[in-house]
Design brief:
CATH architecture: 4-Layer Sandwich
Oligomer: single chain
Number of helices: 9
Strand content: 15-25%
Number of strands: 12
Number of domains: 1
Order of helices and strands: HEHHEHEEEEEHEHEEHEHHE
Shape: elongated
CATH superfamily: Endonuclease/exonuclease/phosphatase
C-alpha cells in the first residue's frame, strides 16, 4: 500500500512539473526608481520564478538598465545550463499613438522572460497597424514538453480610455499572426483594462474578440485582478479554440501575491495589479507496447523404441 501511495504521489508531482505555466504581470511604473527598491525587486523575482514564461508590462526602461537588473537578480546563482535559467525577448519603444506626441517614443516595453531549457523563441514581429497606444509585440514559442508544440503569445496593455476599441482590434492582430505563421494556437494576454470602469455593459457588443465563438476568455468578468480595494477584472487571458485544447482545464487564475506572501499594504509598492496565469497540458508520452511473449518451444519428439533383436 505504501508503495502504491508513493507511486501515486510521484505521478502527481510529475504532472505538476510537466505542465508549462504562463503568466502576465503589469508592474505599475516599472522604471529605474522602482528597480532600486530591494523589497520590490525581491518580490518581483519571487513572482517571476513561479512561471516558465512570464509577460511583464509597464516596463519603462529606455536604456535597458531595469531589465538587466531584473535578469541578474532572477538568474543569480543559476547556471545557464540549468532548466531554471531564464532568457528574454522584448519589444522596442514605439511612437505614441497621440498625434501631438508622434515624435516621442513610448517608454513602455513588453518583456517576456522564459526558461530557455523548456521553451524556445521561434519568431516574433511588432504589430505596426494603427489602433493601439502600445502595439502588441507578437512572439511564437516552441516547447518539447507541452501537448501544443508551437504557440503564439500576443501581449497587450490597452489605454484605459480606448480599451473597447483596442480589445476589439486584437482580432486583427490574431489574424496577422495566423497569416504569418499558419498557426491557430494563439493566446492573447495582459492588461486589457477590461473592468467595468472602462468597458461597460453595452460595450461588449462592440468587441469582436468577445463575441466571436473562436475565442475563449479564461479570466471571467467579476474576477478581481487588482490590488486596489475596488474589484476590477482588468487583466485577461484569451485563447483560440485550438489553443484551448492545450490548456489545463481550470488552471487559469489570478495569483494574489499579497495574500501568498502576507504583504498587506506593502503589495501596492510592487504593483496595482496581480498576475494572471494559466497552464499548458504536458506532452502525453505513448504507452510502450508490451513485448510479445516468446512462443513456447516445441516439445521434443519421443525417441523411437529400439527394435527387438532377432532370436538366435
Amino acid at each position: 500500500m505504501r508503495l502504491l501511495c508513493a507511486l501515486g504521489l510521484f505521478l502527481a508531482l510529475l504532472h505538476v512539473t510537466s505542465c508549462l505555466r504562463i503568466g502576465a504581470f503589469n508592474i505599475q511604473n516599472f522604471g529605474p526608481k522602482k528597480s532600486k527598491d530591494v523589497f520590490v525587486m525581491k518580490t518581483i523575482k519571487e513572482i517571476v520564478l513561479r512561471y516558465d514564461i512570464i509577460l511583464i508590462q509597464g516596463l519603462q526602461d529606455e536604456g535597458l538598465q531595469v531589465y538587466q537588473s531584473l535578469m541578474d537578480l532572477v538568474n543569480k546563482n543559476i547556471p545557464e545550463s540549468s532548466p531554471d535559467d531564464f532568457s528574454k525577448i522584448y519589444s522596442e519603444p514605439l511612437p505614441l499613438g497621440s498625434s501631438i506626441l508622434k515624435l516621442m517614443s513610448h517608454k513602455e516595453r513588453y518583456l517576456f522572460l522564459y526558461r530557455h531549457q523548456k521553451v524556445s523563441v521561434k519568431g516574433s514581429f511588432q504589430y505596426t497597424d494603427k489602433g493601439f497606444e502600445r502595439p502588441p509585440f507578437v512572439v511564437k514559442f516552441s516547447s518539447k514538453q507541452t501537448a501544443v508544440k508551437e504557440f503564439v503569445l500576443i501581449p497587450i496593455h490597452t489605454k484605459p480610455g480606448k480599451a473597447v476599441k483596442e480589445i476589439d482590434a486584437l482580432v486583427d492582430v490574431v489574424a496577422a499572426a495566423k497569416l504569418k505563421w499558419t498557426n491557430n494556437n494563439i493566446m492573447v494576454l495582459g492588461d486589457f483594462n477590461a473592468g467595468s470602469t472602462h468597458v461597460k455593459g453595452d460595450d461588449w457588443k462592440k468587441i469582436r474578440l468577445f463575441n466571436n465563438n473562436d475565442f475563449h476568455w479564461l479570466i471571467d468578468n467579476g474576477v478581481d485582478t487588482t490590488v486596489a480595494k475596488s474589484s476590477d477584472t482588468h487583466d485577461r487571458i484569451v485563447v483560440t479554440t485550438e489553443m484551448e485544447k492545450g490548456v489545463v482545464a481550470g488552471s487559469a487564475a489570478v495569483f494574489d501575491f499579497r495574500e501568498e506572501y502576507s504583504l498587506k499594504d506593502q503589495a501596492k509598492k510592487v504593483s496595482d495589479h496581480f498576475p494572471v496565469e494559466v497552464e499548458l497540458k504536458p506532452q502525453v508520452e505513448p504507452e510502450p507496447k508490451p513485448e510479445p511473449e516468446p512462443e513456447p518451444e516445441p516439445e521434443p519428439e519421443p525417441e523411437p523404441e529400439p527394435e527387438p533383436e532377432p532370436e538366435a
